[in-house]
Design goal:
Blueprint (H helix, E strand, L loop, with lengths): L5 E4 L2 E2 L5 H12 L5 E5 L1 E2 L7 E4 L7 H19 L3 E5 L8 E4 L3 H8 L7 H22 L6 E4 L2 H11 L6 E3 L15 H10 L7 E6 L8 H8 L5 E6 L4 H10 L6 E5 L4 H7 L2 E4 L8 H8 L4 E3 L5 H4 L6 E3 L4 H13 L1 H15 L4 H30 L1
Parallel strand pairs: 1-3, 1-6, 2-4, 3-5, 6-7, 7-8, 8-9, 10-11, 10-13, 11-12, 13-14, 14-15
Length: 388
């Protein structure tokens, strides 16, 4: 295979958040094999050898931000002159390869594009979702599109259903996890010491939620599920509607049971310190946090959505439960009261995470880029021959 170069277009690339961190993990490996140019508003990859072409524009409103970004990225892409271009979803107007980390059309169809707001904010969210869906539909329908990387089989189904992406163009490559960063604590004494360091209760049963967009991801249900359970706390890690969720906890008499550490640059410490991962999200493509929880040895209690339906096996590494506070509470209580079950599911969680090592995932994505580069060169050669 001849060498090729990659232009990578995303709004942000760094090791915070979800899709931003997924991009950073893949690029940190691929950029040591081929030349990579990152076209983004923000790029923080440390010493990874990439070229960054900053894209500037309005930060708000979101509709104007994405519209302006796509057009500025097109200009930068032409200047970069790379062999192929990869875009995260509809970040670019079009691309040779798109990585699908979300499907706005599916989210809109199932939830109306609403993330927990009402009134004017809800009306704007509907408008924004319509815009994001239109951007994605345009990108997935572009004639230059050669491959689509879907991060789960569920996302692949949605791309076929809502955007009519041909099945032969879709390759499922899941998100990943670094087992050197996310791993279980070796013993109870280490876990207790870590809890004290993090200012967490040393002896209570700790449920963990990690993420943003708290309304979509069911944080209200997680709070309700632990409310009233003796010696049980919920740690909500990340950025979201802090005041709203504090009010929800107070309403349920669970204020002392819910802990809000806020965002952190070391989430692995919280995974290692807690007992179970509670993730009642209504929609994902394939959430990184479930993989990180599994690698950290946390049994997972979640709904059957994209990603979790592939990762979680009932009674092996956790449970997939109905959308119900009672169902969440039942499994939390079962794990709290049965240390042997916790230990068995913890081992199962670690074992199930092994397939998702970032080294393997990056290699699978590289193979997709390589195939797209071969097709690009073949198409270019055919065009030149035709012109001759």
């Amino acid at each position: 295979m001849k060498p090729f170069s990659l232009a990578f277009i995303a709004h942000e690339v760094h090791r915070r958040g979800g899709m931003e961190r997924a991009a950073a993990e893949v690029l940190s490996r691929i950029a040591r094999q081929i030349p990579v140019t990152v076209i983004a508003r923000e790029c923080d990859l440390g010493d990874v050898p990439v070229k960054w072409m900053p894209v500037y524009g309005p930060s708000r409103p979101s509709v104007m931000r994405t519209w302006a970004f796509a057009r500025a990225a097109r200009v930068a892409e032409r200047r970069a002159g790379c062999t192929i271009t990869n875009s995260i979803g509809g970040a670019a107007l079009d691309a040779d390869v798109i990585t699908a980390q979300f499907c706005h059309a599916a989210f809109t169809a199932r939830f109306g594009g609403i993330r927990g707001s009402a009134g004017i904010r809800a009306a704007y969210q509907r408008l924004a979702q319509a815009h994001f869906t239109s951007e994605e539909r345009h990108a997935y329908g572009a004639s230059r599109l050669k491959r689509v990387i879907a991060v789960s089989h569920g996302t692949a189904r949605e791309l076929r259903e809502f955007y009519h992406v041909p099945e032969e163009k879709i390759v499922v490559v899941p998100n990943g996890v670094d087992p050197n960063v996310f791993r279980p604590t070796p013993d109870a004494a280490t876990k207790r010491a870590l809890r004290l360091q993090l200012e967490l209760p040393p002896d209570d049963f700790l449920c963990l939620f990690v993420g943003g967009d708290w309304e979509r991801k069911g944080v209200r249900d997680a709070i309700a599920a632990v409310a009233g359970l003796p010696e049980t706390r919920l740690v909500i890690l990340g950025r979201g509607d802090h005041a709203g969720m504090q009010a929800q906890a107070a309403l349920l008499g669970a204020s002392r049971q819910v802990i809000f550490p806020g965002p952190t640059i070391a989430p692995q410490d919280f995974y290692a310190a807690c007992d179970v991962f509670v993730f009642p999200s209504r929609y994902e493509a394939f959430s990184l946090v479930t993989l990180e929880a599994a690698a950290s040895g946390l049994p997972i209690i979640a709904h059957s959505i994209n990603g979790t339906e592939e990762l979680v096996r009932d009674g092996i590494n956790g449970w997939l439960v109905p959308v119900s506070v009672d169902a969440l509470r039942e499994k939390i209580g079962q794990l709290r009261d049965d240390a042997a079950l916790r230990s068995r599911l913890s081992l199962g969680a670690v074992e199930s995470s092994r397939r998702y090592n970032w080294d393997q995932i990056a290699a699978e994505q590289f193979a997709v880029f390589e195939a797209a580069a071969v097709e690009q060169r073949s198409t270019h050669s055919g065009t030149l021959s035709g012109n001759a």
